[in-house]
């Protein structure tokens, strides 16, 4: 007997079905465990919530900075804010003033 007689050749239709099945299994594996698959959804949802909290904090900080900029406008500056900035940045005090450092809270 020759080797050709021992090894059975698969029909072309079965080869095509095998390739299609392998492709389908790869797509299924990616849909479940891929970077945008089912297993990554919870991680992405957690990351989204963290980013939303970070955006809210940054918006709050931006609002505070906008308020400070408006109070320090050269055309209409708030005298108290200007005095506070001068004392903070230049360490300027009047003779009758006392510095009290309060803890940040």
What does this structure look like?
The protein is mostly helical and 105 residues long. It has one domain (12-87). Helix content is 66%, strand content 0%. The protein has helices spanning 3-6, 12-33, 41-71, 79-90. 0% of the residues are buried. The model has no long low-confidence stretch (mean pLDDT 84).
Which terms summarize this structure?
105 residues; mainly alpha; single chain; 0% strand
Summarize the structure.
The protein has one domain.
Q: Which structural class should the secondary elements be placed in?
A: mainly alpha
- The parts where pLDDT drops under 50 for at least 5 residues are none
Number of strands: 0
Q: How many domains make up the 3D coordinates?
A: 1
H/E topology pattern: HHHH
Overall geometry: rod-shaped
Count of DSSP H/I helices: 4
Per DSSP, what share of the residues sits in E-state strands of 2 or more residues?
under 5%
Q: Mean pLDDT, rounded to whole units?
A: 84
What Rg do the Cα atoms give?
35 Å
Helix content: 55-70%
Largest sheet: none
Distance between the termini: 91 Å
């Amino acid at each position: 007997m020759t080797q050709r007689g021992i090894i059975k050749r698969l029909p072309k239709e079965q080869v095509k079905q095998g390739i299609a099945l392998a492709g389908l299994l790869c797509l299924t594996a990616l849909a479940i465990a891929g970077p945008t698959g089912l297993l990554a959804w919870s991680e992405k949802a957690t990351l989204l919530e963290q980013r939303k909290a970070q955006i809210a904090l940054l918006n709050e900080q931006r609002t505070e900075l906008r308020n400070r900029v408006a109070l320090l406008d050269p055309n209409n500056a708030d005298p108290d804010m200007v005095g506070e900035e001068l004392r903070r940045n230049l360490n300027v005090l009047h003779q009758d003033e006392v510095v009290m450092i309060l803890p940040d809270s």
